Amino acid sequence: MASEGTSADPARVAEPSRHQVPEGSLKARLAQEMRAALKAREKVRLSTLRLLSAAVTNREVELGHPVTDEEFLGVATREVKRRREAIEAYTAGGREDRASTEREEQKILEAYLPAPLSGQEIDALIDEAVAATGATGPGDLGKVMGLVMAKAKGRVDGKLVQGKVRSRLGA
């Protein structure tokens, strides 16, 4: 009976656990940077990285499998967006001290995101999407946005793209 729990089932071995981190992945980089921040006693950096790690773990539980680098980027993008919204709220509420902490956290998290697209690259994607969808007016905003955001994959702010698409379509 003791051997039941230790038998190596090939189906189970193929699926890595959440705790097995592939070398070179963003999750491995996160673990390494958390250790470095802990050793250097960088409190804000460590707490921010721990929050990101918790968000990644929550996403893994939701998905039922370890996150891929693409899914990791989705989590990091969502956390950066939360920081942006918090900065706006704290600034509007006159809490500049809290806003500066959120800015610092945002900078730490942005290190995990790919380089953002330039204005010219965004314009080129919009032109390409307008041509592909045959968009002519404000009613086609959703079609164009869907194509642009799918191609940009988290490398651009949706509000910025929406503003450019609206002006392009005359909305």
Q: Keywords, please?
A:
single chain; 171 residues; mainly alpha; Hypothetical Protein Yqey, Chain: A, domain1; Arc Repressor Mutant, subunit A
Poorly predicted regions are: 1-5
Q: CATH topology of the largest domain, anyone?
A: Hypothetical Protein Yqey, Chain: A, domain1
The top-level CATH class of the largest domain is Mainly Alpha
- Helix share bin: 55-70%
Number of domains: 2
CATH architecture of the largest domain: Orthogonal Bundle
Q: How many strand segments?
A: 0
Tell me the distance between the termini: 70 Å
Largest sheet: none
Q: What's the total helix number?
A: 8
Our estimate of the beta-strand percent is under 5%
Helix vs. strand class: mainly alpha
Instruction: Supply the CATH superfamily name of the largest domain.
Output: Uncharacterised protein YqeY/AIM41, N-terminal domain
C-alpha Rg (nearest Å): 21 Å
H-E order: HHHHHHHH
Q: What's the mean pLDDT score?
A: 84
The 3D shape can be described as globular
